[in-house]
Specification:
heterotrimer; A mainly alpha; B alpha+beta; C mainly alpha; A: mainly alpha; MetI-like fold; 2 domains; globular; C: mainly alpha; 15 helices; 4 strands; about 70% helix; nucleotide-binding (chain B); ATP binding (chain B); translocase (chain B); ATP hydrolysis activity (chain B); ATP-binding (chain B)
């Protein structure tokens, strides 16, 4: 419809629309492009007092390293400051958080979608309230018991905590995806001779993959983007990328190595870029699935 | 193969009564149709038999087993769903085979049985397709094949034709009738379409608001409706119902007078008669009223007239023509009339 | 579904939520009632070979540690923590109300109380960012919807970036650009011709930067939801509005906006919830001198050398109360609908 009407739009309106879109795209994308570009410069260029043309042309970078681009920041972050270890931890944490969240979430979401009873409704409402809890308030409840139980600082603790924090959202999202699968399907399976679990595994899960992938993306994002939990619950050796970047900030700035932090930030951004590139449609559908249901 | 017995079955959700005190014996090999408007409890009854819905009260027996506590899979019934419930990720062949697989039927029998079931519903050319690549009628037949591939105690069919277009519905209906004749398996069939009920059933159960209104063969239900609900639900068009009063075997209301009714009651009643039992009167008729509309049906002409505040339909010869507003005289034989109690709606007399 | 099956399915998820969401809330409440032990002091007689003896008070490290091990929660303090200067600070508030010199003075002095400083910024962030981000998102959705199809994909791609970016990373990226040496910070100094203008020095600028970051990162969510909503606006209604002579603006006002209203409620709810826990940008922007939030206060209590569990617990409880107040309209509505359904 918009195409057929486009030529009828007054020129002024078109200018406004295109102008606004260009403005927004710049606003959304420029900070990333600029930081990626700048991460290959030296600090004197990226944080240039004199002129930002320096960052564009790499004046100081050429003077200091001989070339317009330098990987020094990346070398410093990944090799000198062991960022690779944090990256490894992040992979472990996000992988397990995603897998466990989805396992728990599909089971629970399925039951919630198929039970019409009152307690299913109240579980969903409780999940909504839990979803609203700021993570750091929960973290303040964990620390003391975790110290006592001697499970503070290790990856498994953080993983299970992130899974739990993620459950309310995962449950809601998968619940709404399961609702969109006709009940007839599991009922025919059960009449055909399946138990509830067999119906879930053999008949429902094979058609749930789009929903599982979408929800998985959001579980991944939660694990990947988390700062509050991982910063407080992991010991320095076990830190994932985000808390590592935060602890970089102080130490690195004083040592005059801000570019290490910039390189680390860009490194942490790249996987997200790739994620959006490949899963744009799923992310959009996930956001709207929640909305349409909500 | 088995008989099914429902003893005082009730289903309630909080204060809402879905099915109220349902009692029925379904004979082995019988084709039973549950008929009623949507929300009358017919689907709920079937789902309770299948085990998909908890039973609030009462007992369900399949064969000589009380199945109240059994899972659907242990009741050994098969079911055709309104939207077919085909597994979209499996081919037609795998769909039909699925019940054999999950019930651990020996592998070597699978192929033969799937092919036999597919042949019965003429699905052989489509076995490798997925449901998404099938037409509505073909999907419906896959659902049928999946139901007949094993020999269950009973078939349950939940409005299996309602998603088909009119023409396909007629041919599939015939196919279901034929399948039942071949397989002779007890079948319970839910529908809101009285024509399906009349054509398929050995016996029909008419339900409304969770209550059984009448149980009988199609002809019993058509010829002797137990109450005004059944009378108004069965037949196309439904039976004309006109409020009036009766005395000494004479029914009167505004614009209508019928003598010679074999009734001894006196007072307000509802008169029922079918459009096809009425004829154009030679001379004076039992009904004389202006014509409200004239509809040409092809095989007949349908007149509507307003009598005692009700619009009644009269089926007359196909070459009859009249103008709207003309007065027509209609004859109704007393033998074709039914009388119902005006307050309770139940049938008066035999 | 039978109860047994239902709970078998829900159990893992339920256990996880009870153990790591419900119990921690209880734990937080308990913690907030305790404060750290006083250090155990001992009198030690200190005798010098040539100077006689003196007695002095010393911390008995062993005894303190032992006490700590026996009662890890600390000593019971009742609601004391809630009312102290770092939290609700009723005494200080009373003094301020009695001895103030006008509203500006009240404002400045209240902002010096840590809890109120965090609370005020949190609320401002919530209620400024949410509507602005929704307006921005709605605007983008309308504009993108008017574009030719081929351009939509890439624009949606770029639009998603500010949303999915790790909050800490996203705020760092903006912070570096806005810092006096960064491209935007330097440009602003240049524009206003004021070399002292910087985030660090100006609370106002810090607040604006944080709010801008909030709109930047929250806008895309509204955009995506509204854009999806726009696809479901019934074409019939839109076309009949056109035939009835409604202008572009009137079509938006009378057809599109009402259609999107339920979505808008949903977006507002989600974003209020998320914005109420604003935290990472304050770390990313190193803004704690000029702006803090409730979440940041808890983080700060927990991350020092001496972790103040009592104080963190009290702030957490107050935060949770805030969340419940924020959610109460939804909860009340759900409860009413539920009652209606039952009766």
């Amino acid at each position: 419809m918009s195409e057929t009407l486009a030529h009828k739009r007054p020129a002024g309106l078109n200018v406004l629309i295109y102008g606004f879109i260009v403005f927004w795209v710049i606003l959304a994308a420029f900070p990333f492009l600029w930081t990626v570009w700048g991460s290959f410069k030296v600090e004197a260029d990226f944080f240039s007092r004199e002129s930002w043309w320096n960052a564009l042309f790499g004046t100081n970078t050429i003077r200091q390293t001989g070339a317009a681009f330098t990987g020094d920041g990346y070398y410093g972050a990944w090799v000198t400051r062991d960022f690779w270890r944090a990256a490894g931890n992040t992979i472990v944490v996000t992988l397990f958080v995603t897998i466990i969240s989805l396992t728990f979430g599909t089971l629970g979401g399925y039951a919630l979608a198929r039970s019409g009873r009152n307690y299913a409704f109240w579980i969903l409402i409780a999940a909504l309230i839990f979803r609203a809890m700021p993570h750091i308030t929960l973290v303040s409840g964990y620390l003391l018991p975790f110290f006592q139980l001697n499970i503070w600082g290790v990856l498994p603790t953080s993983i299970i905590v992130l899974v739990a924090i993620n459950q309310p959202f995962t449950l809601w999202m998968l619940h709404s995806f399961f609702l969109s699968i006709p009940k007839d399907l599991d009922e025919s399976a059960m009449v055909d001779g399946c138990t509830r679990f067999q119906a879930f595994r053999l008949v429902i899960m094979p058609v749930m993959w789009p929903g599982v992938v979408t929800t998985g993306l959001f579980s991944f994002l939660l694990g990947y983007n988390d700062f509050a939990v991982t910063a407080m619950l992991l010991s320095a050796d076990n830190q994932t990328m985000v808390p590592k970047i935060s602890s970089f900030l102080g130490s690195v700035q004083e040592a005059g190595n801000v570019m290490y932090a910039v390189a680390a930030v860009v490194s942490a951004t790249v996987p997200l870029f790739i994620l959006v590139l490949f899963f744009q449609r799923q992310i959009v559908s996930g956001l709207t699935a929640g909305a349409v249901k909500g | 193969m088995a008989q099914i017995r429902l003893k005082n079955i009730s289903k309630r959700w909080n204060n809402f009564v879905g099915v109220d005190n349902f009692n029925l014996d379904i004979a082995d090999r019988e084709f039973l149709v549950l008929l009623g408007p949507s929300g009358c409890g017919k689907t709920t009854t079937m789902r309770m038999i299948a085990g998909l819905e908890d039973i609030t009260e009462g007992e369900i027996w399949i064969g000589d087993r009380m199945v109240n506590k059994l899972e659907p899979k242990d009741r050994d019934i098969s079911m055709v769903f309104q939207s077919y419930g085909l597994y979209p990720n499996m081919t037609v062949y795998e769909n039909i085979r699925f019940p054999l697989k999950v019930r651990k039927v020996p592998q070597d029998q699978h192929h033969e049985r799937v092919m036999k079931a597919a042949a019965m519903v003429e699905l052989e050319p489509f076995l490798e397709r997925r449901p998404a690549a099938l037409s509505g009628g073909q999907r419906q037949r896959v659902a049928l094949a999946r139901a007949i591939v094993r020999e269950p105690n009973a078939f349950l069919m939940d409005e299996p034709l309602s998603n088909l277009d009119a023409k396909l519905r007629v041919s599939t209906r015939a196919q279901i009738k034929n399948l039942h004749h071949t397989l002779k398996t007890t079948t319970i069939y839910v529908t809101h379409d009285q024509i399906e009920a009349m054509t398929l059933a050995d016996r029909v159960v008419v339900m409304n608001k969770g209550l059984v209104q009448q149980v009988g063969t199609p002809m019993e239900i058509y010829d002797r409706p137990a109450n005004t609900f059944v009378a108004g639900f069965i037949g196309s068009p439904a039976m004309n119902l006109v409020p009036g009063s009766v005395e000494n075997g004479v029914f009167t209301a505004q614009g209508i007078r019928i003598e010679g009714l074999p009734s001894t009651t006196k007072g307000p009643v509802t008169l029922g008669f079918r459009a096809e039992d009425a004829t154009l009167a030679q001379g004076q008729g039992q009904i004389e009223a202006p014509i409200y509309s004239v509809e040409l049906l092809g095989e007949a002409t349908m007149l509507s007239m307003r009598v005692a505040g009700e619009l009644v339909s009269i089926k007359v010869a196909k070459d009859y023509r009249a103008e709207i507003g003309e007065t027509a005289a209609i004859a109704i034989p007393a033998a074709a009339c039914h009388l119902f109690d005006q307050s309770t709606g139940t049938r008066i007399g035999a | 579904m039978p109860h047994k099956t239902f709970f078998a399915f829900v159990m893992p998820s339920l256990i996880a939520m009870v153990l790591f969401i419900a119990l921690p809330i209880v734990s937080v409440v308990v913690q907030s009632l305790y404060v750290a032990h006083d250090r155990v002091m001992v009198q030690v007689e200190n005798c010098q070979p040539f100077g006689g003896c003196s007695t002095e008070l010393r911390v008995d490290a062993a005894a303190t540690a032992e006490l700590q091990a026996e009662q890890p929660l600390g000593k019971f303090n009742g609601l004391g923590t809630y009312f102290n200067r770092a939290h609700l600070a009723f005494d200080e508030l009373g003094v301020i109300l009695q001895t103030n010199r006008g509203l500006g003075d009240i404002w400045n002095r209240v902002l010096n109380l840590p809890f109120y400083k965090g609370l005020i910024f949190t609320l401002v962030y919530c209620f400024v960012v949410t509507p602005l981000a929704m307006a921005l998102g709605f605007g983008i959705a309308l504009a993108v919807n008017a574009l030719p199809k081929v351009t939509k994909g890439p624009i949606i791609f770029f639009s998603l970036l500010p949303m999915i970016i790790t909050p800490l990373v996203g705020s760092l990226i903006l912070y570096w650009m806005l810092s006096p040496n960064g491209i935007l910070g330097a440009t602003i100094q240049h524009l206003f011709n004021d070399p002292t203008l910087s985030l660090r020095a100006s609370p106002g600028l810090t607040w604006i930067a944080l709010l801008l970051y909030g709109v930047w990162t929250n806008g895309p969510f509204s955009f995506v939801v509204f854009y999806a909503g726009l696809q479901t606006v019934p074409a019939d209604t839109l076309e009949s509005a056109m035939i009835d002579g409604a202008s572009r603006w009137e079509r938006i006002r009378y057809v599109i906006v009402p259609h999107l209203m339920p979505l808008a409620t949903f977006v507002a709810l989600v974003q209020l919830m998320d914005n109420f826990r604003v935290f990472e940008p304050i770390v990313g922007f190193s803004a704690e001198a000029n702006a803090t939030s409730l979440s940041w206060l808890i983080f700060n209590d927990l991350s020092g050398d001496t972790q103040q569990f009592g104080s963190a617990g009290a702030t957490s409880v107050l935060t949770i109360i805030g969340v419940v107040i924020l959610l109460s309209p939804v909860l009340v509505r759900t409860w009413r609908e539920f009652k209606l359904k039952v009766v």
